UniProtKB/TrEMBL annotation:
Record Gene3D superfamilies: 3.10.450.60, Lipoxygenase-1, Domain 5
One function term, GO molecular function aspect: metal ion binding
Family annotation (PANTHER family): LIPOXYGENASE
Segments forming domain Lipoxygenase: 158-595
Biological process terms in GO annotation: linoleic acid metabolic process; lipid oxidation
Protein name from the UniProt record: Manganese lipoxygenase
SUPFAM superfamilies referenced in this protein's UniProt entry, alphabetically: Lipoxigenase
Native source organism of the sequence: Talaromyces islandicus
Amino acid sequence: MKPPYMPLAIAALAAGAIAAPSMYSNASGAACIPQHDPNPKQRAAGVSARSVGFIYGPSLIGEAAPFPNGTLGNARSRSDYNTWSIDRKKIDSLIANDTQAMGVSIQLNGGLKTWQDYEKVLYDGQLKNSNPRGVTPGMIANATQDLLFSMERLSEHPYAVRRVMANEALPFPLGNNLTAKIVGENATLESLRDSSRLFIVDHSYQKDYKLATVVERYPVACSAYFYIDSKSGDFLPLAIRTNVDMDLTYTPLDSANDWLLAKMMFNANDMFHAQMLHLVISHDVTESVHQAALHTLSENHPIMVILERLMLQGYSSRIVGEELCFNPGGHWDQLMVYSQFSCRDFVTDRWPIDGRFQGGYLENDLKARGLIDEKGESLFRSFPFYEDAKEIRDIYKAFFTTFINSYYGTENDLSGDFEIRNWFVEANTKAKGHDFPKEEQLTKDSLIDVLSHFAFATSVSHHSTNGGAPISSGTLPFHIPAIYTPIPKEKGVTDLMPYLPDAATAVHYLGFMASFNRPFYGDSGRALEDVFVTADSMTRLNSETNSAAKDFLTGMHNLSEKIRGRQFNNDGLSQGMPFIYRTLDPAYIPFFCAV
Ligand SMILES: *[C@@H]1O[C@H](CO)[C@@H](O)[C@H](O)[C@H]1NC(C)=O
Ligand SMILES: *[C@@H]1O[C@H](CO)[C@@H](O)[C@H](O)[C@H]1NC(C)=O
Ligand SMILES: *[C@@H]1O[C@H](CO)[C@@H](O)[C@H](O)[C@H]1NC(C)=O
Ligand SMILES: *[C@@H]1O[C@H](CO)[C@@H](O)[C@H](O)[C@H]1NC(C)=O
Ligand SMILES: *[C@@H]1O[C@H](CO)[C@@H](O)[C@H](O)[C@H]1NC(C)=O
Ligand SMILES: *[C@@H]1O[C@H](CO)[C@@H](O)[C@H](O)[C@H]1NC(C)=O
Ligand SMILES: *[C@@H]1O[C@H](CO)[C@@H](O)[C@H](O)[C@H]1NC(C)=O
Ligand SMILES: [Fe+2]
């Protein structure tokens, strides 16, 4: 039998008195699915009124998710922005304190004159207020090690790397003799590719991007090969091609300075990628799906209660981006490798690809990039990002499994929920989502996956790239945000100092990166592990869900303890890396896209 289905407009007409619509979904009282609502007419009228009050407005920062317009939409983004501003004032004053102290230290040192000055003067005893946790252990001391550079692809910067597939043309050439000399075992690019051991990060698309003119900088658009060493099992760098000017290709066999500069140039491109991708895979993906829910789900729907919690101050970020990051001559134009216009181009280009909802599910993404096999097994001896991200996703999934089973006894209960069916339709149409499951695909399992990925996107996707990650792991002098002197026309560079940001730019850069950090969230109940237990709205959900919320906290806290317990072994390694991966600590990262 077909479940009852009442089109929204008719329901609204039938309802008579229209309840005052709210820009937030925090009605009081127990939440329930529409079939169980004692007052279906009033409920439908509320959905209708909200659907009218929220309008899908134009995207911000490139062409991606719509941004809310309409009376409710504007009220909501203003209110979210005001909420964001409270923490902004707080972190800004901490940063002001820290950058002032840093300025004094630089002055006492007589400026930044050596590589070691950047390592010590900018970090020793610095950033105490805005990054009290300190920087990623080992990231500065071991910055020049190849294993650090390569393992960043499998931990701190996990979204750009992919395997070169067996049927694929080689992305760029590298002589057989050279390859064999680096890899041994008479290896060629072809033999590495055919044995599933050749990987690429390709940022060559950046050669079309424009430089901002406010500060003089120089373009690079590096692509890099990595490989798995058959003897040690290590994941290592093989070559870096600059793709601009003389189009030099560097390898570990070059002089120490040449190779180090190549890795630094790559880092500028990779930082651009990570920061811009974060907009697509966290903000745009969740805003699109959440707006679809604002148009279709009642404030009284249990799923709306959850989505609202995850979207805390969600509509502040893209406004902040327009105002403070990507504004003409703003932080981005002053600091990063390419201009704000390139940022928008990146978002527009990547939204249909990296903004795909199901394509972004952890295993779907990693399989598509050839980093895990069909069974979900990693190809690497160690894959730190996958390890933690999967555990977080699994804990979320366990919670949502209980939640969904507690509200929908059977699949029929779910197919009878016309609000959820409308949501799925809306996400695929008016909300302009890509690859969200179709209405026909709605099952308890697919819904659990949708919620798990939504929560993953506001936590793992956001904070693996942005949040507190850049100030902790994107350390100078190795991780330069842009190139400050013309790149070499031939190998043999002797002095790397001209390629580093000057003191004023370095301080500005660190302050900017610190502005994404929220070190005080762990103490204020806003870390990932707190998402449910500190939410007032949990009283509106049933006892099974509240009980699952306790298990969620236990599981997340357990993961946090594991992460906080990581140490270097006798070889100076942690998870096979010369630095300690703690970027996804659930007692540190927010559960929402905080900025
Ligand atoms: C709903 O929640 C928002 C944000 O948490 C709050 O500002 C507002 O006062 C709440 N409204 C009601 C009616 O509870
Ligand atoms: C926002 O919505 C209003 C009312 O429909 C409309 O007049 C206005 O043009 C919209 N703004 C944008 C930027 O689309
Ligand atoms: C920075 O904050 C600390 C306390 O956290 C305070 O002792 C110090 O005086 C402040 N420094 C500046 C320059 O404001
Ligand atoms: C590659 O190495 C072989 C054997 O050492 C040598 O004969 C050949 O000239 C080298 N080719 C190039 C292009 O260097
Ligand atoms: C490399 O190739 C040469 C010539 O074919 C062969 O003698 C040698 O054993 C090979 N070395 C390795 C490590 O496979
Ligand atoms: C805690 O984590 C360990 C692994 O670190 C795992 O074996 C154990 O089952 C976890 N316990 C809970 C309650 O999640
Ligand atoms: C990396 O740095 C840490 C901290 O300085 C050090 O203890 C460790 O031995 C280093 N690891 C390697 C492989 O050099
Ligand atoms: Fe963000």
